[in-house]
Model the fold of this input.
Amino acid sequence: MKNKFLKKLAAASLAAAMVFSMAACGNADNNAAKGNASDSSSAAAENTSSSDKDLTKITFCLDWTPNTNHTGLYVAQQLGYYEQAGLDVQIVQPPEDGAALMCASGQAQFAIEAQDTMAASLDSDNPLGITAVAAVLQHNTSGILSRQGDGIDTPKGMTGKTYSTWESPIELATLKTVINGDGGDFDKVNLIPNDITDEPAALAAHQTDAIWVFYGWGGINANVEKTPCDFFFFKDVNPVFDYYTPVIIANNEFLQNSPDVAKKFLEATQKGYEYAIQNPVDAANMLIAGDNTGSLSGSEDLVQASQQYISEQYIADAQKWGFIDEDRWNTFYKWLADNGLTSKDLTGQGFSNDYLGGN
Done:
């Protein structure tokens, strides 16, 4: 899942480079939420009558098909947390041009994004009107998955090996930094196009030697498929890569005009993720039940195993769910600027903790 997701992001990044004033990264593939893109987010969130009580309609755009990053949303929906907060929340799939653009246009009030892919959306003379308002996971769980015993349990082991790439500038700069910093030689890594759909199977078949995955899905899937693999986290190699992925973003106009609604949404969402932390099995079942795409059908064992891991990552060592550490956010954006990956320094931009609930 991670690799298809990242290839979508890379394709959208290339489009952003060609039309920079509309910069954004697309993650997924179908079922755009219907509505006039010129309608403001606040208008889309006006009160409507539902089940004999007035509920504020909220559209939430995912970054990809439902997975364990999204569990808290489905829990909050199915346990009635949103309705108790006076909200009617519709969870939708992203359009071809991505969740960030859908959110910025006002067709969705909230969406899933990531700090690294947000950079293209913010690095423009006309940046997208989006703000990260909550961290879904407290730490970056991505890294490199490889066959066990191939010597790629550290970055320098990638020297002379084959890596499946989606050719993103941030991706390649990250790899160069960790490989060369570990005493390896990035220039000696054999780069091939990433067309992988099942990471453990691709490694077992020697289609590639190394793949960038999120451990909570790709790494756990290796365990479920009983494929012996090695893995290292980027954040453990260099703390600059402990950036926030994924995050919940919100439409700026909506935040300005409806801050109380935004706070109610995030408070209910926080309750959903807190429930998932305490009840991972039940929460995973709610995710599976809420999946209207069919993408999780047949993957119930993976969902349950992933949920056991991910539930421990939602808050981890943070003071509360959703909190974004300013220093970590800024450290990564400074690295992007220092390495010429953005045209300007984005430190201090693109996030806010002001809409989160209490501890």
Remarks:
- The chain is about 40% helix and 15% strand.
- The domain at 142-241 is CATH 3.40.190.10 (D-Maltodextrin-Binding Protein; domain 2).
